Structures are given as C-alpha cells and as structure tokens.
Amino acid sequence: MKILSELYVPLVVSVGQVVIFPYYILWLKEASLTFTLFTWLFAAFSFSAALGYRMHQAGKKPANSYIPFLYMGMGGVYLFVGNISTSFEVLPFLALLFQVILGFLQGYHHAWHIEQNTFRLHAINHYLLVGIIMVALSFVKIISPTIFITIFGATLFICGLVFIFMKNNMDSAVSN
Amino acid sequence: METSPKRNKKHSIHKNPWFLGTVVCIFVVSVLVNIPIEKRKYGLSQSNLTTDYTGLLPERIERIVKVGGRTELQKIVKEANEKRQHISIAGMQHSQGGHTYYKESIVLDMKTFNKILEIDKQHKRIKVEAGATWEDVQEAIQPYGLALKVTQSQSIFTIGGSLSVNAHGRDIRFGPMAGTVREMTILTPTGEIKTVTRNDSEEWMKFVFGGYGLFGVILDVTLELTENDVYSIHTEELKTNEYEAYFSNLLSNNKTSMHYARVSVAPHSFLNEMYVIDYKNTGKKDHQTKLKKEHGARIGKLALDIGRQGGGLEDLFWKNQKLLIKSLDGDEITRNNAMRGNSAFMEFTKPGRVEVLQEFFVPVEQFEEYIRELKRFLSANDKNDDFKIHNITVRYAAKDDYTYLNYAKEDMFGLVILIQHGLKEKEIQNAKAIIQGWTDLTLKHGGGYYLPYYPYQTKEQFRKTYPSWEMFHEEKLKRDPNGVFQNIFYDYYF
Ligand SMILES: Cc1cc2nc3c(=O)[nH]c(=O)nc-3n(C[C@H](O)[C@H](O)[C@H](O)COP(=O)(O)OP(=O)(O)OC[C@H]3O[C@@H](n4cnc5c(N)ncnc54)[C@H](O)[C@@H]3O)c2cc1C
C-alpha cells in the first residue's frame, strides 16, 4: 500500500497540476483585473515556489511527514477556488494569497519529489498522461472549469488523507 | 580552479531561505498596494452581447462604428434611412436602461469624436465635438480661467450623452444644462447636417436635448461658460424637516453658487439627519489651480463597502461621513474642481448582484411631506433585505422650459438613490415592486423620476411623469419616419 501511495500520489499531483492549469488560469485571468496584475500573480507564484523548494532543501525534519498536509493544503486551495462566491474586488487579493500558497507548496513538493526513487519513472508517465488527458478533455466542452477545479481539489485532499492513514497504519505496524 | 569564499557567498545569497522569504514578502506587499480598484467590464461588443454600465439588458448588435468624420457618419445615416436599418448612439454608456443600443442595430461609438474646435475667451464660449467628455472640456478651458455652467457631479460623461438626458448637477444658478447651449450641429434622421440655435423655428434643441438619441446625432455644440470662481466650502448638519427653509434662504441670497446635500440611510438616523454642502462665493478667480485627480478611492471604497453591510456598520459609516464632511468646512475649491466629484470609489461588482441608480424629483415645497411619507414606505434597516439603499443625495433642478421630455416642470429637488439588489427573477421583481411603489408616492407629491436609469417603472408611470410624451412621440414619427434612431429605452416606453 505504501508503495502504491508513493507511486501514484505524486503523479496525481504533478499531472493534475498541469491538467488543471488551463482551467485555473481562466479563473486567475478573471480575478486579475489587468494584464500587469496577471503576470505579477505568476511572479508571486514563482518566487514563492523558489522559497518552498529551498525550505525543503534546508529542512531538517524528514519531509515525508509534511507531504500529506501539503496535498491537503493544495487541495484546500483548489476546493476554495472552485466554490468561491465573493465580490470581484476581493478576488485579486485572494488570488495573490492562493498563488503564494500554491507556489510554496508546489516548490516544496517538487524538491521532495525529485529525491524519490520513483521520480524518473514518473517523468515519462507524467508527460504521457498529461498528453492523453488533455486530448480527452478537448472532447468535454460543457462542464464548467469550476467543477474540474473542485474535483481536482477534492482528489488532492483525499490523497492527503490517504497518506496520513497509510502512515498511521505503517507506524502502528512497526511499533507492533 | 578554486573559488574564493567571497565569491561563493555571493553566489549563494539567492539560495538563502531568509533572502527568498524576504523577496516573497516584499513582492507580495508591492503587488497588494498596486492591485487596482475593480473597474466594471462593460460596453460595446461585436463578438459578445452589448450592455451598458450595469451589465443588464444584454443584446446582440449588428456592428460598432467608431465615429471619425462627419461625411462618413452622414453616409451611414442616409444609408440606414434608405435601407430602414436601426442606429443607436453611445457616449460613455453610463445610462442604465439600454439607451445606447438596440437589437441588431448599428451603434455609433461617439467617444472618438471628441475634438475641441474653438475657445472664445472673450465671450466665454467653447465649441466642442459631442463625444468629448466634461473632463476634456475642463482641461481645455481651465488655463483660460473658465469653467462650465452646468455639469453632472462628475466629469466622466460625454457632452452628447449629457445633453441627451438634459443632465443637472450641483450648480443652482444657471438652470438646466440645455439652457447653456448657444448653438448645435446635428445630423438628422434623414441624413442632413443642420446648425441650429435656440431660436430655430423647428425647435430641434427642444427635442434633441433630453431626447435620448432619438432625434439624430449631436455632432458639436457651442457651450456658454463662466469664470473659474473660487468658493469656500460651507457644511452643516440639519434635520430633514429643516431643509426646505434652509434651501429657500440659500437660493434667495446670492452668496452661494453650488450646493448639494446627503440624507442619512443609516438605521438610527434614517431620513432624519442630513448634511448640506454649499459652495460660497469668495470673489476670487482662479487661473492656476490644477484640475484635481481622483485619489483616496481605495479608502473611499472600503468605507462604502463597510456601509454596504447595513445595520450598525451603516450607522458607523454615516458617522464617519459626517466627520469627513465637517473637516471640509472652510476649505477653498475652484468651480472646475467642485464639478469633478469622485466616481471610482463607487465601483461594485459582485456576482448575482447589481448596484443601480434611480432619481426621483419632488417639487421643492413638497420635500418635507415627501420625506415624512417615504420614512413610512421604506424600511430603515435593510441589513437583511435583498433591496438595499446605500446612499441618497439631493440636488436642485431648476424649472426647465428648454426640453419637451422634461423632468422639472417646476423647481424640483432631485433625490439620487444608490440601490443594490439581487439578480434572480424574484429579486428583480421585488426591486420593481418597491421602485414602482416609490414612484407612485413621488407622483402623488407632484414629482416624477429621471429616465437615464433602468426602467423599473411602468409605462403608465412614465406617461404621468412626462405628460408631453405624446407630442414627443408624434414628432419622433414625423422627423424620423423610418425609425432610424432606436434604442431599448424607446422600445420599452413608446
Ligand atoms: C455614477 C453616475 C453618476 C451620475 N450623476 C449624474 C448627475 O449628477 N446628474 C445627472 O443629471 N445625471 C447623472 N447621471 C446620469 C448621466 O448623466 C447619464 O447617464 C448620461 O447620459 C451619461 O452620459 P454618457 O456619456 O455615459 O451617455 P450614454 O449613456 O452613452 O448615452 C446617454 C443617451 O444619450 C444618447 N447620446 C449619446 N451621445 C449622443 C450624441 N452625440 N448625439 C445624440 N445622442 C447621444 C444616447 O443614445 C443615450 O440615449 C449619473 C450616472 C452615473 C452612472
């Protein structure tokens, strides 16, 4: 089971992030009132990702203990984006917050992911899966982006819970 | 090759978590302070549906013509007249009831037709194309020490759009806006270009001003100007039942040139308290003071957003407004700047909700009784209601003999109401019912309502407010027999 979660969950995250990107970007475009702000929101993501990446490298505690919460955090943000109903003037502020959180978590996740044995295997699967899913999505035109974002958020959140559950099981198996 | 420790340190600073953390923090703060105030996306669109500022009444149009030259425009109108096509005219599109477009119509976007043609300093006049905004005009005349006689409280509107609704503002001396035009060039529905004055026997001005773009295109106008006087601001808090006497006193002595008032919509002082802002003559003239730019919009918006929550927060907002107004007492301001009220702070965009304006006119001597009845009609605390009132300002609209579709058959107070309500069918019906009830109450006091806004009112209420509608309609059919100039407003009421 551990192997399964380690094998597939990071793939869900990396593939999912790319697949959801076109939908997320639609929301982001709407939330950022000007093109300048749109680009700045990406910059905020990138700076924050650099920080997340570096924090993983500098971390002393084994990163595995944070990973489930990282999935839940990412999932939480996407769930929030998918279900948000607020006045437009608040959106840019929320978008900035989300970009910083997502950037940090993604940077951290990436730094962790490349250290995993399965990373090389994931790289090829990642590209293939993204390609296949994107082609498949091109046939689905009716569902609104927010539904996809919500589904992806929920999936990540569940992955986080699964990870915690596995970890607890493993821990109790070891102590037994 | 060995690297020096210094170089190594320099090399790795960007990898230091503290450094990266600081970069993220600085960047986030700079983005935060630069997030612009939301501007509604609205207006003309050929690929999507066209709307006006509220985003209500979406409609597909045939095409947009960015107006450049008169000959091109004349050709379009002549062709439309021959082929029985519809044309609508759009300025800044701040009207809110589909006045600037119509199903499958050609929409003339006047914003590009905005040249200042002539400034006559000696006779205090300006000739300007109708797509120019008041802002454009103010920029042109300010260096000559000149100012406009009548405008709305903001300078964001086009001259054509403003004259077509015969707008009014804070000035209390120069009468209706239509009365400040000496000469006008118009492109008629049959494609003729005519230059007319107030004495024109065909009375084009009387139909075109306040004519909502139904009698032809205003190409240019010659406006009468006045001096850019310096005023001292006087503010005072009053009870609403003291206002009539206060205003008649103000009007009878010549010390004050401009004036408006704000009535409380906060639960604890609802329609009881108000404050007035008078612009008193100082005798000084100004040639130098720069036109003020809008600033503090974010704070203003935040304050209004607090007020929008209703209940105790609306009381708090009202108290703060009073303090702010009090702090203006004694300040000096030029006429041009007094005519440039802020607008960005009013921006409001929330999915499923809309903010609209309505204006009710009531004869000056009816104000007290009207407010008393209004207090019984409206709920003082709308915190939990769908239909919310955020603001009421009062202006003076002098008797108007210059237009046929006129809202001021005698001297009136105009009460401008900022309303918010939901966009579900039930919520719109509820807003309609309240506004229709409010209109009936206003009509009972000999008043009426303003037409540039969303038509919540019935046709019958329109006819009662504008008894000369029939004559207006007959003239429209006579002068525009093929119905070239069309808009949703005309379709609804006529
Ligand atoms: C925030 C706000 C504040 C306001 N304050 C005031 C106020 O203080 N006093 C007041 O009186 N009104 C006020 N109004 C109403 C405003 O004056 C009108 O809506 C005005 O028409 C706006 O000008 P515009 O350039 O946006 O015109 P548009 O909305 O573009 O057009 C209005 C009408 O004019 C016609 N039109 C436009 N250009 C021409 C032309 N060249 N020739 C012929 N017809 C033309 C259009 O067909 C349309 O029927 C306010 C509105 C808003 C939204």
Characterise the protein shown here:
The complex is a heterodimer of chains A (176) and B (494). Chain A has 176 residues and is mainly alpha-helical. Chain A has one domain. Helices cover 82% and strands 0% of the residues of chain A. Chain A contains 6 helices and no strands. The mean pLDDT of chain A is 84. Chain B has an 8-stranded antiparallel beta sheet with strand order 13-10-12-11-15-16-14-17. In chain B, strands 4, 5, 6, 7, 8 and 9 form a 6-stranded antiparallel beta sheet that branches. Chain B has 2 domains: 111-227 and 469-486, Uridine Diphospho-n-acetylenolpyruvylglucosamine Reductase, domain 3 (2-Layer Sandwich), CATH 3.30.465; 230-457, Vanillyl-alcohol Oxidase, Chain A, domain 3 (3-Layer(aba) Sandwich), CATH 3.40.462. Chain B starts with a helix and ends with a helix. Chain B is 32% helix and 24% strand. The A-B interface holds A 33-34, 36-37, 40-41, 43-44, 47-48, 50-51, 54-55, 58, 85-89, 92-93, 96, 100 and B 15-17, 20-21, 23-24, 27-28, 31-32, 34-39, 301, 305, 347-352. The complex binds flavin-adenine dinucleotide (FAD). The site of flavin-adenine dinucleotide has 35 residues of chain B, from strand 2, helix 5 and strand 9. Flavin-adenine dinucleotide binds next to strand 2, helix 5 and strand 9 of chain B.
Please summarize what this structure is.
By secondary structure, chain A is mostly helical.
Largest interface: A-B, 24 and 25 residues
Low confidence ranges of chain A: none
* Overall pLDDT confidence of chain B: 93
| Secondary structure category of chain B | alpha+beta
Distance between the termini of chain B: 90 Å
User: What ligands are attached or bound here?
Assistant: flavin-adenine dinucleotide
Q: Which series of helices and strands of chain A comes N to C?
A: HHHHHH
What would you report as the Rg of chain B, rounded to the nearest angstrom?
A: 25 Å
